[in-house]
Design goal:
The chain has 313 residues and is an alpha/beta fold. The chain has 10 helices and 17 strands. The chain has one domain: Carbamate kinase. The protein is globular.
């Protein structure tokens, strides 16, 4: 079994059709039961997670309740709130399992800030849609209030605000996370890709952006010297020609082969491509030994090398 692993949970591990707290917590309970065999080992574990549906709902709530008495919170603050909310659910369920299996380990959540470069070209090209849908008249009114905000039409469903999605430069809490993991705690970190911040003088300030969860998880895995990065998604393997009659399952693959597939345009932007790019970055950093991409059901067997897509240098 691996010595240290970062597990990046996909949105399907938390998302439900019912957005209530109870339904989301039940989904997390089922997800953590799937990972229970891993909690029985002595593997050092960090868990990251997405927050797409949760932050979308929170931004809608902020918009609806926005008033002089209850002003809407900015995106970085909303991100921190979803980290706390989802982290609370995750650590509660993990600690319940740890007690059940009579383990002395404990789980906890670290609200995580992720440094980004203000000069990153991605900061000047907003692409990530967030929050509620608006009609054209609403967008015009919103842009009068905030001329710098950018809205784009989204697949005929209306307009949504779009924000930058820069690459992570560093994880500010990585030393704290590493120390806690060394003490055999199971740590939840980099929720929703972390809170994007930029350095200003002697401190850091939040910025309106969204960091890809898989890139943030990869950066964290580097910084805490993890052996393995596991990216859990909704498919058992990475596929070439996905959903086509000639689709091909990838089982054991190296970085050079994946780069060839990227050059051929095999992987879709916003879907499998960022996961593959994160895998390559981790392995080429010199820190990582292996990246696994699979679904939640096969997580434990994939760690044993039996299933999933196993990526090595």
């Amino acid at each position: 079994m691996n010595n240290k692993i970062v597990i990046a949970l996909g949105g399907n591990a938390i998302q439900t059709d019912d957005g209530s707290a109870e339904a989301q917590r039940n989904a997390i309970r089922e997800t953590m039961q799937t990972l229970k065999p891993l909690f029985k080992t002595d593997t050092d574990i960090v868990i990251s997670h997405g927050n797409g549906p949760q932050i979308g709902n929170m931004l809608i709530q902020q918009s609806v309740a926005d008033s002089e008495q209850t002003p809407a919170m900015p995106l970085d603050v909303c991100g921190s709130m979803t980290q706390g909310m989802i982290g609370f659910w995750l650590e509660t369920e993990i600690n319940r399992i740890l007690t059940e299996i009579e383990s002395e380990r404990r789980a906890g959540t670290i609200i995580t800030r992720v440094e980004v470069d203000p000069e990153d070209p991605r900061m000047s090209t907003p692409t990530k849609p967030i929050g509620p849908f608006y009609d054209k008249a609403e967008v015009e009114a919103l842009q009068k209030e905030n001329p710098d905000s950018v809205y784009k039409e989204d697949s005929g469903r209306g307009y949504r605000k779009v924000v930058p999605s820069p690459l992570p430069v560093s994880i500010l809490e990585h030393k704290l996370i590493s120390d806690l993991v060394e003490d055999k705690n199971i740590i939840i970190a980099c929720g929703g890709g972390g809170i994007p911040v930029v350095k200003q003088h002697n401190t850091y300030e939040g910025v309106e952006a969204v960091i890809d969860k898989d890139f943030a998880s990869e950066k964290l895995a580097q910084l805490i010297d993890a052996d393995t990065l596991m990216i859990l998604t909704n498919v058992e393997n990475v596929y070439v020609n996905f959903n086509e009659p000639n689709q091909q399952k990838l089982t054991d693959v190296d970085v050079a082969t994946l780069k060839d597939y990227i050059d051929q345009g095999t992987f879709k932007e916003g879907s499998m491509l960022p996961k593959i790019e994160a895998a390559i970055d981790f392995l080429e950093s010199g820190y990582g030994q292996r990246v696994i991409i699979t679904n939640l059901t096969n997580a434990y067997e994939a760690l044993e090398g039996k299933v999933g897509t196993q990526i090595k240098r």
